[in-house]
Design brief:
By secondary structure, this protein is α/β, with parallel strands linked by helices. The protein has one domain (31-301): TIM Barrel (Alpha-Beta Barrel). The chain is built from eleven helices and eight strands. The chain has an eight-stranded parallel sheet. β4, α4 and β5 (156-160) form a beta-alpha-beta unit. The longest helix has 16 residues, at 285-300. Bound molecules: (1E,3Z)-4-hydroxybuta-1,3-diene-1,2,4-tricarboxylic acid.
Length: 307
């Protein structure tokens, strides 16, 4: 049988092939704590149950972007298009050596031996995706079972949900025996006032010592990227949300590119611009050191973080 070939979902937007060089010099040791690899499908076939088929974006391209942006390490997060087959992610993490960690997707019947194999490869968390457009079944029932299995390994749960699911999910998420990391600030509606519904999320973060990725301005923004070529100031409407999160929870925030940016429909961000966006979110050197280096090191490389 030949290797499978895949065509991207019609209308799929490809990742930026020539991102700009950021103006911001990232602090040494910067971690991109949210990125993915897609395939290549011929080597790592996409999952039959996937909701989209991306353009291939493999590990070598990810490592090239890492070096181009001045990033030191990556956390490669399993994407739904690969289902619970973690092969592409594990291959990338292994190939990066000490410069990457992984976040896997597993099923509730995952064996201790499989978890040990993933740990050995560099996996430190499991992702639970609650977006109906990305997965068939909401994984709420699986969460407690899987969390009990990963707790002894010192792993955490990464959860992706939309703001209006928070009330429904808090009962499940609040009682887990593992640290909780929320993707993309819990996807707030950034057209609303930052002092409105978003404080509900912030209090949830406070109550349960949640870690927050202040990522994906390009996905949350309504005002969008710069209108003019060469302008570096983008996604202004997201800034109050990200900045407030960084200011209230400076020691539990993480940053990531979300490369290769699946499922965007209106534009593809310039990854160099996403780096420059960080100065608006974390305006001081001290805040950036925590966001980009100290916090992700504590979560993903605690043995090197020193405390
Ligand atoms: C993201 C966002 C998305 C997709 C996935 O695993 C995925 O397919 O996470 C999305 O479509 O919003 O974080 O990459």
């Amino acid at each position: 049988m030949g290797s499978p070939t895949f065509s991207p979902t019609p209308g799929w937007l490809d990742h930026h092939r020539h991102p700009s060089v950021p103006t911001l010099a990232l602090p040494p040791g910067t971690v991109d704590a949210h990125c993915h690899v897609f395939g290549p499908g011929v080597v790592f076939p996409y999952a039959p149950e996937r909701r989209y088929t991306p353009t291939d974006a493999g590990r070598d391209e990810l490592f090239a972007l890492r070096d181009h942006l001045g990033v030191t390490r990556n956390v490669v997060v399993q994407a739904t298009c690969h289902g619970a087959d973690n092969s592409a992610m594990v291959d990338a993490v292994r190939a990066a050596g000490t410069r990457a960690r992984g976040v896997a997707t597993v099923r509730p019947d995952v064996s201790a031996a499989e978890l040990a194999r993933l740990h050995d490869a560099g996996v430190r968390g499991v992702r639970f995706n609650f977006l109906k457009r990305l997965v068939d079944a909401a994984p709420a029932d699986d969460l407690a079972t899987i969390a009990a299995k990963i707790a002894p390994l010192g792993w955490h749960a990464v959860v992706y949900f939309e703001a209006d699911s928070l009330d429904e999910l808090e009962g499940v998420l609040g009682g887990l025996p593992v640290p909780l990391v929320v993707d993309h600030m819990g996807r707030p509606d950034v057209t609303r006032d930052v002092d409105g519904d978003y404080t509900h999320f912030l209090r949830f973060v406070d109550r349960h010592d949640v870690w927050v990725k202040v990522s994906c301005p390009e996905r949350l923004s309504v005002t969008g990227p710069p209108a003019l070529d060469g302008e570096r100031d983008a996604y202004r409407d997201v800034v109050p949300f990200a900045r407030r999160t960084v200011s209230e929870f400076g020691d539990r925030v993480l940053w990531g590119t979300d490369w290769p940016h699946p499922n965007l429909t209106d534009h593809m961000p310039d990854d160099g611009l996403l780096v420059d966006h960080i100065v608006h979110v974390a305006p001081t050197e001290q805040a950036r050191q925590r966001l980009l280096v100290d916090n992700p090191m504590r979560l993903y490389w605690p043995e090197e973080a020193g405390s």
